[in-house]
Every structure is written in structure tokens, then in C-alpha cells.
């Protein structure tokens, strides 16, 4: 089983680069326990982080526990999720998982927090992102073709990827695409 160990230059939640004082150190065992106990399962980042828990427990018994780095916004999100202050969800998805699912199907999956969208899109666009090799090819294509960091830009890239289809899985997707067309981000 492949184990991902985040180098000290990457955030363990979003995979973005960290610099100097913009990071916080966490005990790996507590970090994994938070992911498994407090976060909802999703298909991209969650399995990578949860799969390592058994390996981390075995490694901790033989030597001293390793550390995980998080960026300050991910630390703040973790604190809100752990204390139950995320009012919309009892068990929230990891932010990056939620954004990637939203990119695949904008109306079917909940939108990420507006405060985090810019940061997450910026982190995902970095070629040295820790999790980029694990993204499916549609997400990589969509991320590489996003022209801005707003929801409308993400929906516009999704629409281009789907060859400007007239069929939508939900009315929310259709509404997003109509707004993107109205705002001039995409042409019909």
C-alpha cells in the first residue's frame, strides 16, 4: 500500500505550498483521527488520508510519531469542523474533496465555502500540489482551464469540458451555466 508523507513544504489538507510562518505542525495520529472520525467520506482526498491511518498507527508504535503540516486557513477550517461550528453539516467533507466534486458536477454536489474557493483553486492549480497526481483527468483538465477563481469561472470551465451540453443533471447546474452565459464568461 502506497503511503503519502507530506513534505514540510505542502499542506496535508489542500496540498498547497507552504512558506515559513504560514504553516502549523500537527501530530500525525491526532490528524488521522480527526479525518476518520469527523470528516465525511469522499472519493479523492479522504481515502488517501484515511488509508494511512493504519500505517501511521503501526509506525507510531515502533518509533516516535511523525508530524503533519497544515496551512493557516486549513487549521481554521479544522478547528471549526472539530468544534461543530460548521452549521450546514454535522460531518463535513474535506474542503478539497468538496471542491473537486463540485468541479465534476456543479449542481449535484454542494458548493464549497465561498471564502475558500479562491484559495483551493489556487492550491489545486499548482503543478507541485501534493494531491494533483491522484486527480482524475477531467478534474485536471477543468482546473487547468479555469480562467479565474470564482464559482462562475469553475462552471464555465466545466461547461467547456462537457462540450457546451444542453443537458444538465440538476436545475442548479443549468442555473450556474445560465449565469455564466449572462455574465459573458462563456458563449452559447
Structure summarized in a few sentences:
By secondary structure, the protein is mainly alpha-helical. It has helices at 28-38, 45-62, 72-83, 95-104, 114-125, 137-144, 151-161, 171-182, and strands spanning 23-27, 67-71.
Largest sheet: 2 strands, antiparallel
Shape: globular
Work out the count of structural domains: 1
Strand content: 5-15%
Please, how many helices? Answer: 8
Approximate helicity band: 40-55%
Q: Determine the mean pLDDT.
A: 78
Question: Separation of termini?
Answer: 46 Å
Number of distinct beta strands: 2
Query: In which order are the strands of the major sheet placed?
Result: 1-2
Summarize the helix and strand pattern as letters: EHHEHHHHHH
Structural class by sheet pairing and helices = mainly alpha
Q: Which value, in Å, is the CA radius of gyration? A: 17 Å
Unreliable segments (pLDDT under 50, ≥5 consecutive)? 1-8, 60-65
